[in-house]
Amino acid sequence: MSVQTIDASNFKHAIQEKEVTFVDFVTQWCPPCKTLLPILEEMEREEEHRLSVVKVDCSESPEIAAQFGVMGTPTVIVFHNGEPVDKLVGLRPKSVYQAVLSRYA
Fold first, then answer.
1. Total tally of structural domains belonging to the chain
2. What is the distance of C-alpha 53 from the center of its chain?
3. pTM above the 0.90 mark?
4. CB atoms near residue 64 (< 10 Å)
5. According to DSSP H, which parts of the chain are helical?
6. Per-residue confidence (pLDDT) for residue 1, from 0 to 100
7. Catalytic center at which residues (predicted)?
8. Which of 20, 26, 33, 36 is catalytic?
């Protein structure tokens, strides 16, 4: 399963699909973004009943990045029941993302 890239047309639907959604804000030229993606894909497979992971390409959807104050990539914004509840800037160990998930799911 690969992480779906979303844009303004399907953003609202995507963040309400499951109890918790990680929105990964990326750019194509960002090496840490490429490192983070497999970690998030693995988490989504492991936690498919409660976690959805999607990504937003900041170059293609700068309005969404601006709306949520994304200044650097990767940035993961955590949505719980469709509302933003946490923001993780930069590459973090998988355990950090797991801890955030357990806080909201």
1. 1
2. 5
3. yes
4. 19
5. 11-14, 31-46, 62-67, 94-104
6. 60
7. 30 (nucleophile), 33 (nucleophile)
8. 33
- Active site residue: 3, 30, 88, 91, which one? 30
Q: How far apart are CA 60 and CA 49, in angstroms?
A: 29
Asked if 71 and 40 touch (Cβ cutoff 8 Å), the reply is no
* CATH number of 73's domain: 3.40.30.10
Owning domain of residue 36: 4-104
Q: Is-catalytic flag, 30?
A: yes
Return the sign of the alpha-carbon dihedral for residues 1, 99, 67, 35: negative
Give CA 79 to chain center in angstroms: 9
Determine whether 33 is an active site residue.
yes
- CA neighbours within 13 Å on the CB side: how many for 77? 24
Number of other CB atoms surrounding residue 56 within 10 Å: 26
Tokens of 78: 């955590």
- Crossing angle, helix 31-46 and helix 94-104, to 10 degrees? 50
